[in-house]
Amino acid sequence: MLSNALVPFAVLLALSSAAPSPVDVPVHTIPQSRDDYHIYPTVKLDGSPLDKALINANNGELYIGKPTTAECQEAYPCDTLSNATAIIVSNNGAGAAMDVYVPGGQILYVRKTGELGYTAAHAQNVPSDATQKGFMRVEFFPSDKSAYAAVIFHGEAFLACPLGEEGVYRVHAFADSRTDCTKIEIQAVDSGSEPHAYQYTAPYTVS
Ligand SMILES: *[C@@H]1O[C@H](CO)[C@@H](O)[C@H](O)[C@H]1NC(C)=O
User: Fold this and answer.
1) Quick check: is 15 in a domain?
2) In angstroms, what is the span from residue 157 Cα to ligand 1's centroid?
3) With a 6 A CB cut-off, is 83 part of the ligand 1 pocket?
4) Which one of 78, 80, 85, 196 would you pick to mutate in the ligand 1 pocket, going by the greatest count of ligand atoms within 8 A of its CB?
5) Low-confidence residues of the chain: pLDDT under 70
6) Is the minimum distance from the CB of 119 to ligand 1 under 6 angstroms?
7) Number of structural domains, the chain?
8) In sequence order, what DSSP letters do the residues of 40-89 get, joined into one string?
9) For this UniProt entry, which residues form the secretion signal (predicted)?
10) 71 touches ligand 1 (CB under 6 Å)
11) What is the residue range of 71's domain?
12) 103-112 pLDDT, tens digit each
């Protein structure tokens, strides 16, 4: 799935260079596909207990250590849905969304204070000061590990910020006012071409 053919020439040059890089710039490439990527957002933090933790949609926010909250319409074959949390990332700049069947979808966004959130079904209730664009799926080719795909937001990885409850973290894109958050990568684990939930639970009004 990951193809070295996609690595731009400049990146290949960087990889083959013998001199160590003066700064720790992650080597990645942006696939040029116009397709949407269907992703189970999963923590990648080698050597940490958080590694491989699933990131779950819960009441309009994304968490590590909380279960997914999903809803379904009776007319739908709800028992066929796993309700696992999956997102869609478009590399065409359109932004990201929850991967759902509900018409109109559910928009993924970043709050002004950095927390990730998503809109309620049938609602475009993105907070007016939130950011919708800037999500991308990229592919990393570390020299010492296997290649992997990850989600980034405006070129950066994410943060897991503790909530005072053991093992529970809120996922942030940034958290300027906090010093207790852990930097994580969101690995883009392929979730297949179909959604896994009808809709994820979210409040209709957000503050
Ligand atoms: C998914 O969630 C819906 C709504 O809560 C529920 O009806 C359905 O049974 C769930 N599916 C599974 C496999 O748990």
Assistant:
1) no
2) 31
3) yes
4) 78
5) 1-27, 31-34, 207
6) no
7) 1
8) EEEEE-TTSTTTTPBEEEETTEEEESS---EE--TTS-GGG------EEE
9) 1-18
10) yes
11) 26-200
12) 999 999 999 9
pLDDT at residue 76 in the model: 85
Let me know if residue 160 belongs to a domain.
Answer: yes
Give residue 30 CA to ligand 1 midpoint distance, Å: 35
Q: Note whether residue 173 is domain-resident.
A: yes
For residue 147, is it within any domain? yes
Determine the distance separating the centroid of ligand 1 and the alpha carbon of 78, expressed in angstroms: 5
Q: How far is CA 89 from the centre of its chain?
A: 8
Cβ neighbors of 89 (< 8 A, separation 6 or more) are 36, 37, 39, 96, 135, 136, 137, 151, 188
The pLDDT, as a whole number, for residue 35 is 75
Beta bridge partners of 185: 44
Cβ–ligand 1 contact at 157 (below 6 Å) = no
CATH number at residue 42: 2.80.10
pLDDT digit string, tens, across residues 60-74: 999 999 999 999 988
The residue nearest atom 11 of ligand 1, judged by CA position, is 79
